[in-house]
Every structure is written in C-alpha cells, then in structure tokens.
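Researcher: Structure prediction, please.
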Amino acid sequence: MNISKVILFLTAIFLSGVAVGQTVKKPKAPSAEPARAVLLFDRKSGAIRQNTNAYQAMPIASITKVMTAYVVLNSGVSLDEMLTVVPQKLETSKTLKTGTQVSRLDLLRLALVASDNLAAKLLAVHHPGGYDSFIEKMNLTASRLGMINTTFIEPTGLLQNTSTAWDLHLLNKAATRYSMFREAAMSKTLEAESLNKRGIWQRVIVRNTSAFAGDYDIKVSKTGFTNPAGWCITMMIEHQGHTFDLIVLGSPSKKTRNDLVSSYLKDYMNFITRNSVIQKIDLIDTDTGLESPP
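Model: Predicted structure follows.
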C-alpha cells in the first residue's frame, strides 16, 4: 500500500470518530411499550383519566369470557342443569374430563376464575339455541350495549375476537347486574364439582388467573393472553365511593401488565383519597361557617 493510500485510510478513520481496533456499537432497540391500549375511567365524575388507544380495536383474548358468561346469565337458563363434558377441537382443560357432568354454574365459575377454555366452549355448545345461535347472541348483545367496535367469532378468546378498551368498559357496567362477576373477581381460589361416569362426585380446586383477586373491592375482572393479544386485563373497582374501570390490552409480558396495573391502581386510589380528604375539610369549613381556603 503506498503512502497516499495509507493517509487516506487513516483520515477516513479519524473523520468517522472510530479508533483503530474499536468495534462499532449497534444502537439499542427502543423498549417495548407497556401496553397497546389503556383506559382509566372514573364513573363517578365521568372523566377519562388515561386514554391510550382506547378506541382502537384489537384482540382481547380471554376477556371474551365476560361476554360469554353475561350472555348465559342473561338468557335465564337453569344454572343447576348438569351438562356433559364433550371433547372439542381446540379447547382443552386441566379440570374437565370427557364424559363427566358439570353444572352450568360451575362451568361459568371455571370460565371466569380459572379462564377454562373448555368450560367457556361448553357453555356455548349446550346453549338451548345451539352454538351458532350463541355466537350470534354475543354479537347482538355487544351491539345492544353500544360496543360498536367489537366482534366475537367464538366464546373463549383463543381466536381473534376483537374489541376496544372503551367497549370493554361498557361491558363491565353491564356485568355488574350479576353478582357472579364480583364473586369470581374476588375469589383467589375456586372449588368446583363434577360427576364422573361411575356416579361419583369429584372436587377440584383452581386458582384465579388474576394476581389482584380479592385484594381490592373488585366488581368485575378478567385476564387474558394469546400471542396476538398480548397480556390483557379488564377491571372495575370501587374505592371510597368512586367506581372506576382500568383496562389494559396488549402488554408484552404478564409482569409488565401487572406492574402497570399496580402502578395505576396505587396512583389513582391515592388521588381519590387525597380529594376525599379535601372535600371533607371543605364540608367541615362550610358547617362551621369558616371560609374554605382558596
């Protein structure tokens, strides 16, 4: 290599700011967003406290089961009726064994607490009008509730049922009509019974899929996860006279979702508490004839 080429080579290195023998570091990839959608809605004031893509339709995974249970309860069918567990193409269960019989009530509870996919599918299969009629009823109910950006194609959430955080807060409100949703949301564990082929009752205990079960005054709650949907949760909580919805869709991991929910709950409950104290002080000042501070 002649002298001129060496000079050009060293000059290029100097101008690039890279020392000889030093490797070029690749820029770090941006960190993933904690969620694709978030809605924090205070029902007492009607205020939206957080809105991140709340009106954007996206997969909702097992949050679907809130609508499945709501349609069953709204239909007026007997919850005591024993239904036979029949195998399904996609849906499986660690709890329900083929050929056993389970009450419709326990199928509802398994679907809401343990997010049992087979339980949810059987509720639709054993619907008096049949499976297709049940799915049609899910969509008609969504339309009636004003969930205009919601579509259901099956009752479990395994496939890509889609909705928005805003539509799901409408479903939360409707679900409070039935105490079962609060009971499921507050239960850390669930005992369910089935009758096997030999006529022997068997009992199982399952855990709630929500890490928040029973820790707050929860009116409605359901978690969900599929690869397309990410980690999701819908909640309606009451705190010091305020009822509010917190809905998180599309978190990249369970921990990220739970940490995000914990942060929102802590911050907003503290906000409610602080404002409640201020209101009480204002009330005392009014009652005693003292002027409220500006």
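Model: The longest helix spans residues 254-287.
Researcher: Thanks, that helps.
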